[in-house]
């Protein structure tokens, strides 16, 4: 049977030139579940929005989000090398350029870079009374300083600096993501004002450091650190891709599957020469937010190695017996609160 152009049929619906059919699309402005007929199409499997494309399995434009990788227009994937791309040109807010100056026949065996934040006053005072007291207010063979960026509570540091003269602060924002800036700040300070120190130790303000056993290790193992950084070192490690992790690393910031290994930022040591070389080469190593990994990336560019030192401990154990901290097998211990630090120091132990 033939019907006019305006016909209703149970199987199909045809309305003059505007036709809707269950199994066909006869117009350029129709959307079908299994085809993409225009530049603005939504499909269950893929999402294509004009020139902004998101697809799970391919990279289709310069503005692409991939499940395994993230490349966003001008945000390029981090390279291993660059040319003067990371310049540490921050200015000092607080400085004491005399920390490593010596008189008579005194030599500086170790300069200690201690990371801190303004509110950790109790930590700093406990350290001054315990394991850096051997510095005798930065007049002996051991020298140290606490390092800071700027923060909202920075003003308390100005008064502290007048009293102890062991505070160094630069004008970058102090945060966990900026610890690499703080590290390069320490190495720059070494280069400018402490180039007479034999060794450089980097650590944090929640650490127990047994300087007696560290000095003994350096006396008997100095050759191991000629072209190495030593500490609690991981010879192999992988980036953490879980976004909720404190150590998260996106593909755009670190595309490789493996780190070159690294020594835990809780405590590592190397020669003054190596510290200065790391600072110098850092200008050609793109910024990376995990400071201990970044130092290792610089070490790799120098062609140097990692040296695991027995006694450098990355883990914690706050319930350990006080005398355990003083054993020869312990050089560093992480997450020791200031009250316990004072107890360890005053505890009379026999080896």
From TrEMBL:
It is found in: Golgi apparatus membrane. It is a single-pass type II membrane protein. GO terms for biological process: protein O-linked glycosylation. It is an enzyme of class 2 (transferase). Coiled coil: none annotated. It comes from the Eukaryota. Its EC number is 2.4.1.-. Keywords: Glycoprotein, Glycosyltransferase, Golgi apparatus, Membrane, Signal-anchor, Transferase, Transmembrane, Transmembrane helix. InterPro entries: Glyco_trans_31, Nucleotide-diphossugar_trans. GO terms for cellular component: Golgi membrane. Its main location: Golgi. One of its GO terms (molecular function) is hexosyltransferase activity. Belongs to the glycosyltransferase 31 family. This is Hexosyltransferase. It comes from Lottia gigantea (Giant owl limpet).
């Amino acid at each position: 049977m033939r019907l006019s152009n305006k016909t209703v049929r149970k199987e199909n619906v045809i309305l003059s030139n505007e036709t809707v059919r269950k199994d066909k699309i006869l117009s350029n402005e129709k959307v079908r579940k299994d085809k993409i007929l225009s530049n603005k199409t939504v499909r269950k499997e893929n999402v294509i929005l004009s020139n902004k494309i998101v697809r799970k399995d391919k990279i289709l434009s310069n503005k692409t989000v991939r499940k395994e990788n993230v490349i966003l227009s001008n945000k390029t994937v981090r390279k291993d090398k660059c040319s003067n791309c990371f310049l540490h040109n921050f200015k000092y807010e607080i400085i004491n350029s005399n920390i490593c100056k010596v008189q008579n026949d005194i030599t500086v065996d170790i300069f200690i870079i201690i990371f801190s934040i303004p509110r950790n006053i109790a930590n700093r005072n406990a350290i001054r009374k315990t394991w850096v007291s051997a510095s005798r207010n930065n007049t002996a063979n051991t020298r140290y300083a606490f390092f800071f960026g700027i923060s909202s509570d920075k003003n308390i540091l100005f008064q502290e600096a007048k009293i102890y003269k062991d505070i160094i602060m630069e004008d970058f924002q102090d945060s966990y993501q900026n610890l690499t800036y703080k590290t390069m700040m320490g190495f720059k300070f070494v280069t400018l004002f402490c180039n007479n120190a034999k060794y450089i130790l980097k650590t944090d303000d929640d650490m127990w450091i047994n300087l007696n056993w560290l000095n003994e290790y350096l006396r008997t193992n100095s050759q191991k650190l000629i072209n190495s950084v030593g500490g609690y070192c991981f010879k192999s490690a992988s980036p953490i891709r879980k976004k909720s992790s404190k150590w998260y690393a996106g593909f755009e910031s670190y595309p490789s599957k493996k780190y070159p290994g690294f020594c835990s930022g809780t405590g590592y040591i190397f020669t003054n020469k190596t510290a200065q070389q790391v600072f110098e080469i850092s200008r050609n190593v793109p910024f990376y937010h995990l400071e201990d990994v970044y130092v290792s990336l610089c070490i790799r560019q120098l062609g140097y190695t990692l040296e695991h030192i027995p006694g450098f401990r990355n883990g914690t154990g706050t319930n350990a017996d006080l005398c355990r901290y003083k054993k020869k097998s312990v050089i560093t211990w992480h997450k020791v609160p200031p009250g316990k630090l004072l107890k360890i120091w005053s505890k009379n132990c026999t080896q």
